[in-house]
Write a structure and sequence with these properties.
The chain has about 350 residues and is mainly alpha-helical. It contains 14 helices and four strands. The protein folds into two domains: about 180 residues, no CATH class; about 90 residues, no CATH class. Helices cover about 65% and strands about 5% of the residues. A two-stranded antiparallel ribbon has the order 1-2.
Length: about 350
């Protein structure tokens, strides 16, 4: 039965083309354009890969669209027999309705899981192979992979560069080179100076640079040239889990409603509209209901190296705009959605009139 379900889904060419275009085509086209642009004009266009490109593609594109296409596949699998008039013929054969429903789960996952994995592998390969060779933090080129003490020592050796190009107050009247990120040939700061309106002393500059570097280090430490292997593994498992949830919920909802179009629309509204609102806005008296949204639970299970889902990129700032929720509750919510929608879909198939 699993093989039959798999063949039924695979032969739907329009659906398969859409799945391939979204899961593989979007990241491939984006990265290909970046590769070509950097090869043609390397001074004008940054390298195609790197840590920032990886995190933005995974958290901003593959996470969202992976859920939507998996939900679309699930809605198709849950309603195809009804919409094509085959449900009665399947029931007449005497096969277990529960077995007919459960067979759709591995059949659908055999399609969506490899597609998500292929798209993710392409992203990982390009982001690692075409990563930048210089680390840029807040637009300034800095050495990569320094410890806190090494970063502070480097800041003390390059005080003017740190004060002019990295965030932080500037002591006195500091003459910065033209083109620095602080904006001009002369910067007037609010910190201590060596007296008068002249250039601060070397000791003052060094102390100010080290102080600024100490405040900047958390953000610098979260900035990398390329994604690490543990981050890629965790991110891959995370987006595969998101696809699994999308498929299971779409399958159960379509089976419950007996059609595909409305469940697909509801899943898109859930992912793109309701989840961002309910995940970041604390609504009095219904906060516990908000914690039951699977998108919020998945945001709390997100790997730490990625931008926070629906809450902005708080990397290095330690601030999250998400509705608070413990990891244990998030895990329970995910399991409840998987089991609950599977049970609802199976129950409706077992009780539906043939």
């Amino acid at each position: 039965m699993i093989a039959t379900r798999f063949m039924e889904l695979r032969k739907r060419r329009g659906l398969m083309i859409a799945l391939i275009l979204v899961n593989i085509g979007i990241p491939t086209i984006f990265l290909t354009v970046r590769l070509i642009a950097h090869a043609v004009a390397p001074r004008s266009y940054a390298p195609a890969g790197g840590y920032d490109i990886f995190t933005n593609l995974v958290a901003g594109v593959m996470y969202v669209f992976g859920f939507i296409v998996a939900a679309t596949l699930g809605c198709t699998a849950g309603s195809v027999d009804l919409t094509e008039g085959m449900f009665r013929h399947l029931v007449v054969t005497g096969r277990s309705r529960l077995a007919l429903y459960l067979a759709r789960i591995p059949a659908g996952l055999a399609i969506v899981v490899p597609l998500v994995a292929i798209g993710f592998t392409i992203v990982c390969t390009v982001c690692v192979a075409a990563a930048p060779t210089k680390l840029y933090y807040e637009g300034a080129a800095v050495p990569a992979g320094l410890s806190r003490s090494a970063f502070l020592a480097w800041a003390g050796e390059h005080p003017v560069y740190v004060l002019c190009d990295l965030p932080g107050p500037v002591p006195g009247n500091l003459a910065c080179p033209n083109g620095s990120s602080n904006g001009g040939p002369v910067i007037r700061g609010g910190g201590p100076s060596s007296g008068g309106s002249g250039q601060p002393s070397a000791a003052v500059l060094k102390a100010a640079a080290i102080e600024n570097a100490a405040h900047d280090y958390p953000g610098y430490a979260a900035t990398f040239l390329a994604p690490s292997v543990p981050l890629m593994i965790d991110s891959g498992l995370w987006i595969e889990l998101e696809a699994l949830i999308g498929f299971a919920v779409g399958l159960g909802l379509a089976s419950l409603m007996g059609q595909r179009t409305v469940p697909v629309v509801l899943m898109i509204v859930l992912e793109l509209i309701l989840t961002p609102i309910l995940s970041t806005s604390v609504i009095p008296h219904v906060i516990n209901l908000q914690r039951g949204v699977v998108g919020l639970a998945m945001a709390h299970l997100e790997p730490g190296g990625l931008p926070l889902a629906f809450g902005g990129n708080s990397r290095g700032a330690g601030v999250s705009q998400l509705v608070p929720e413990s990891t244990a509750i998030a895990v329970c919510v995910v399991l409840a959605w998987l089991v609950g929608w599977t049970a609802l879909g199976a129950w409706r198939m077992m009780t539906r009139d043939a």
